[in-house]
Write a structure and sequence with these properties.
heterodimer, A: mainly alpha, MetI-like fold, 9 helices, B: mainly alpha, 14 helices, 0% strand
Chain lengths: 264, 309
């Protein structure tokens, strides 16, 4: 196990324990309003203080972590599986199928950055489902390009040509021989991709176009904290620190996995 | 030449697809966009009037051709809330965004060139740490986190710079830093890689053997030759910088194209949203086209590699 992988695992374990395990024991209602006690500094009752509605910041950070991680994992799962399937199909069959799939990829890449997701959400309204759909639609192209490239290379290998000569069908070859060579690379890309999905999700939430305001998410918390930046900087700093730890954690994990797989 | 024509056609195709996708998204919205815009309690007459004004009562083919016409003649449609051409509103706001973008690019250049050059010129622990540091800050800290943190440090704790808003140079520093650091991270890496590649080439060894000083070789040969790919990549990043301005402008309450887009989304001013998205994508696609053309002019080998797809 290499150094990057270790750092990545340690940082992400911290985030997972913080978001999923500690809330089981830390029994505070993250939605409970207490307007007489808003923007309070850290105290025994509220270890990280309260937000502009007097809600407990610590618990909201934990729930926010759950929401961000869950959304990112669903998005990564959708986009990598769609990209994987379409990429292998495009690379394996070639011709008109390849042309159509790759043109769709080109079209989606004509939108800069988060603009495509922003467009979809601005027209269809922001809900968690729309957020997941928009981010997945934006994300699958990278995986499609990667798996297509690997498929193109793999299908030329001698052992595939000979399996085909022995009478193996397309589906069999794709599952049994091409998929195994694509998967490690997709896993590495997916673990590196998590941080960009988290950044896109929190960024859209920050703009008020991501996770609906009724949920505590890190992006929403940073956005709300901006109005009180002169009074209480904790509102912005705490979610920011957690977000940075998460992003760095996934970057190290991806880097570590890349080294791990290329070492084998 | 063949490559350039192909590249140009791809750009036109991309523009057309962005136009069409945005058009279809607006016509696919569940519910009536006009009712969404006017709110639940709208009078029936008002709804009908606005549908007519927006041309939504015409057949879809006619709407599409009107829409494409607006895009090509450059008016980009008409805002509902402000009742005037989108292009006119963009013209009022664009200067702020351009200022911010130039500020961001300058910051990126100021940060990345010394660090990138130094880390290739003098390989070692310290320069390595510097370039890793800037990539961590640039890549792992998104603009909506970096911006507020910079405000907290420089405006609130140190009381050196204004918190938000527009004005003189002092107002421009923090937004430019926020926008530019991400680009600086990418640029630092590219500068280091292209310098490393350039300094490993055969002719450099020859120059060394002839006895030219290291400084002289670096300034007149390595830097000069490596600069070309660096500049093209800088052009390529320009489009990405534009979407970065959406968030940075929001953080600093900057009255540019980015906040205009966010406000129009809040007001459900669909024609304005549509026009702005088209405008931003247009700039992005055109700057990518320019970068690609620059690249080919500078390095003809690309054509042989068929770099596109």
């Amino acid at each position: 196990m290499n150094f990057s992988l270790k750092i990545g695992i340690v940082l992400l374990l911290f985030i997972i324990i913080f978001s999923f395990i500690i809330p089981i024991f830390y029994n505070v209602n993250p939605m409970k309003l207490d307007l007489s006690n808003d923007l309070a500094p850290p105290s025994l009752k509220h270890p990280l203080g309260t937000d502009d509605y007097g809600r407990d910041i610590l618990k909201r950070l934990m729930i926010g972590g759950q929401i961000s991680l869950e959304i990112s994992f669903i998005v990564i799962f959708f986009s990598s599986s769609i990209g994987l399937i379409l990429g292998i199909i495009a690379g394996y069959y070639g011709g008109i199928i390849d042309e159509i799939i790759m043109r769709i990829v080109d079209i989606l890449l004509s939108f800069p950055g988060i603009l495509l997701a922003l467009t979809l959400i601005s027209f269809f309204g922001n809900s968690i489902l729309n957020l997941i759909l928009a981010l997945s639609l934006m994300g699958w192209v990278v995986y499609a390009r990667l798996s297509r490239g690997i498929t193109l290379k793999t299908k030329q290998e001698d052992y595939i040509l000979s399996t085909r000569a022995l009478g193996a069908g397309d589906i069999y070859i794709m599952f049994k021989h091409i998929l195994p060579s694509v998967i490690p690379i997709i896993i590495v890309q997916a673990s590196l991709g998590v941080s960009s999905v988290i950044i896109a999700e929190t960024g859209l939430s920050f703009l008020g176009l991501g996770v609906p305001i009724s949920y505590p998410s890190w992006g929403n918390m940073i956005n709300a904290g901006r109005n009180y930046i002169l009074i209480n900087t904790n509102l912005i700093l705490f979610p920011s620190i957690l977000l940075i730890i998460t992003v760095i954690g996934f970057n190290y994990l991806g880097e570590g996995l890349r080294k791990f797989f290329s070492g084998h | 030449m063949k490559f350039l024509i192909k590249r140009f056609l791809i750009a036109i195709f991309s523009l057309w697809s962005v136009f069409t996708i945005v058009f279809f998204i607006i016509h696919l919205i569940p519910g009536d966009p006009v009712e969404l815009m006017l709110g639940e309690g709208a009078q029936r007459g008002d709804v009908e009037k606005m549908r007519k004004e927006l041309g939504l009562n015409k057949p879809i083919i006619k709407q599409y051709s009107n829409y494409i016409k607006n895009m090509i003649n450059g008016t980009l449609g008409k805002s509902i809330a402000q009742n005037r051409a989108v292009s006119e509103i963009i013209r009022e706001r664009i200067l702020s965004t351009v200022k911010l973008a130039i500020g961001g690019i300058l910051i990126a250049i100021i940060l990345s060139f010394p660090i990138g050059i130094l880390s290739s010129y003098k390989e070692g622990k310290l320069t390595d740490k510097l370039s890793t540091g800037i990539s961590v800050i640039g890549i792992a800290i998104p603009n909506f986190v970096l911006g507020p943190i910079l405000i907290i440090i420089f405006s609130i704790k140190l009381n050196l710079l204004p918190v938000a808003g527009e004005g003189g140079i002092s107002h421009l520093i923090l937004p430019s830093l926020t926008l530019g650091t991400g680009l600086a991270a990418i640029l630092t890496r590219i500068i280091k890689t292209s310098l490393d590649e350039e300094k490993g080439k055969e002719y450099i060894k020859t120059l060394e053997m002839i006895g030219f000083s290291k400084k002289r070789i670096w300034i007149f040969h390595i830097l000069k030759n490596a600069m070309i790919p660096i500049i093209t990549i800088l052009t390529l990043q320009f489009g990405a910088l534009l979407t970065g301005t959406i968030i940075t402008e929001t953080v600093f309450s900057w009255q540019g194209i980015g906040t205009l887009l966010i406000n129009s989304i809040r007001q459900r001013d669909y024609p304005l949203i549509e026009g702005l998205i088209i405008f931003i994508s247009f700039i992005y696609i055109v700057s990518n086209l320019i970068a690609d053309i620059l690249y080919v002019i500078v390095d003809p080998r690309i054509r042989l590699k068929g770099a596109y797809r």
